[in-house]
Amino acid sequence: MTIQPDAAAGIRHVFVRGLTVQARLGVHAHEKAQPQRVILGVDLAVRDPYAPAAEGPDELSRVVDYGAVAETARRIACAGHVRLAETLAERIALAMLDDDRVVRVRVSVEKPDVLRDVTSVGVVVERTRF
């Protein structure tokens, strides 16, 4: 399921796409020893208390800051070796749910330089606040 804004439900969509980092990710010896290019995507369903009929104050403090989202994802991805792309995606997703305004998160982790004859390999995970 794709995260979509939904005014009636009071949900906005916040995203970071194409965040490229150098991370140690994978099960092979060379992946443990040397960072590789990893592309991250984060999609958030965020509570919008002003939807559907109001505008809300023009203040950064009232929204989920996509700069902070990118920095958190970058920090987690670069913190040390992770064997599985699934584990990395789950760690990032759970960190996003630390913000009470986030009700659902999808995280993609792509490794574009792994297989010669494909553009990218990877995984997408979704986590939801209960």
Automatic annotation (TrEMBL):
Presence of keyword Metal-binding: no
Top EC class, one word: lyase
Pathway: Cofactor biosynthesis; tetrahydrofolate biosynthesis; 2-amino-4-hydroxy-6-hydroxymethyl-7,8-dihydropteridine diphosphate from 7,8-dihydroneopterin triphosphate: step 3/4
Pfam families per UniProt: FolB
Location of the Dihydroneopterin aldolase/epimerase domain: 14-127
Catalytic activity, EC: 4.1.2.25
Keywords, sorted A to Z: Folate biosynthesis, Lyase
Transmembrane regions listed in the UniProt entry: none
Reaction equation(s) it catalyzes: 7,8-dihydroneopterin = 6-hydroxymethyl-7,8-dihydropterin + glycolaldehyde
Similarity-based family: Belongs to the DHNA family.
Listed name of the protein: dihydroneopterin aldolase
